[in-house]
Write a structure and sequence with these properties.
Helix content: 25-40%
Number of strands: 15
Structural class: alpha/beta
Strand content: 15-25%
CATH architecture of the largest domain: 3-Layer(aba) Sandwich
Bound molecules: pyridoxal-5'-phosphate
CATH superfamily of the largest domain: Type I PLP-dependent aspartate aminotransferase-like (Major domain)
Length: about 450
Amino acid sequence: VEPDPQAGAAVKAADRAHVFHSWSAQGLIDPLAVAGAEGSYFWDYDGNRYLDFTSGLVYTNIGYQHPRVVAAIQEQAAKLTTFAPAFAIDVRSEAARLIAERTPGDLNKIFFTNGGAEAVENAVRMARLHTGRHKVLSAFRSYHGATSTAINLTGDPRRWASDTGSAGVVRFWAPFLYRSPFYAETEQQECERALQHLEDTIAFEGPATIAAIVLETVPGTAGIMVPPPGYLAGVRAICDRYGIVFVLDEVMAGFGRTGKWFAAEHFDVVPDLMTFAKGVNSGYVPLGGVAISEEIAATFATRPYPGGLTYSGHPLACAAAVATIQVMEDEKVVEHAARIGETVLGPGLRELAERHPSVGEVRGMGAFWALDLVRNKETREPLVPYNASGEANAPMAAFGAAAKKHGLWPFINMNRTHAVPACNVSEAEAKEGLAALDAALSVADEHTV
Ligand code: PLP
């Protein structure tokens, strides 16, 4: 593609004049003007191409512009672009069927939303109505979305400004051995103590007041902490003991990201409600939803469900989901994600950790990896302080700039970089990404002590 800096400047100028960006001080940002994208890459107007190790916001699981999904959206647009949610529409029925067939256990009914936060909002609403209880427990080190309930469930600084002390949300600590809140030394200890802490929290909050426990199966933005064996099964047992609805948020971990259709499969657990979005159609058209157990669906068999959205099950979004799931089956994208994690990303990142003093820990599975960057491997002091900005964040900013200089667009959150490419990233692309990370980590190393 021919560079066209003038066109890029016009795009940028209109953006700066009129687009109000998420999570940003509007006067302090400098968004890159993007001219196009394909597969694992995108490019700007100045002739720079980047390998996208972020998958957008961890959602382009089949990469950009997959021709079969683009064609399916075009065909659906020509046939029936939109239709209201109260009607039975072929492509909506088909998307629901394909999703329900892949979700674990008896999660057989699908409520469609436009994205992840709305899925979480509705899962909580369902749990509250199903149990007749109000409180909801969620974990520190989590992200569940930016709408009212979802942001209150979120256990990271993005909640702080919106925290109205709201609506019966109680937070607890989930297991994370590398930065254990439980003084544990082994995964097994971490698991046992985290489960005891959860059970104690429930006892002191009052079991009969708690509608739901909401957990990311593998927490994503908060650091890709793969839970220790037995933890999620333990949470399932606690939920069963107290009649609490178990909600797994698979908005980020679902649809192949961990090398299974859903991360819950790794841990042999079936939640009562499971939220999804992102990878369901690689974000080509906004779509999310809640997969609902038979028992909870039965609550609303003769009693109306008091929730809905104008665009619930939008035909364009559903057509993109049907095509995406078919592509993932035909091209064995889920199996590929598992294999690239086991054979290229996992070993490659661990090898970087051995050579770079700034890499404290490597965690992950499939196409879902985090590098926990540190000032010192012994003390595990994070490379930048929690929620750092400005000068205090300079080491991570320098790391990010170095990655971009080497053609890699990195995912950065606090002291971590995540390697979260498309789930169909090729071996050569994954290795190209590892080489760029290698170079950028040398910059991070300069800030170790
Ligand atoms: N839940 C999880 C685990 C997420 O990672 C996200 C987004 O990153 C959300 C919910 C919110 O999704 P959305 O931004 O589509 O509302």
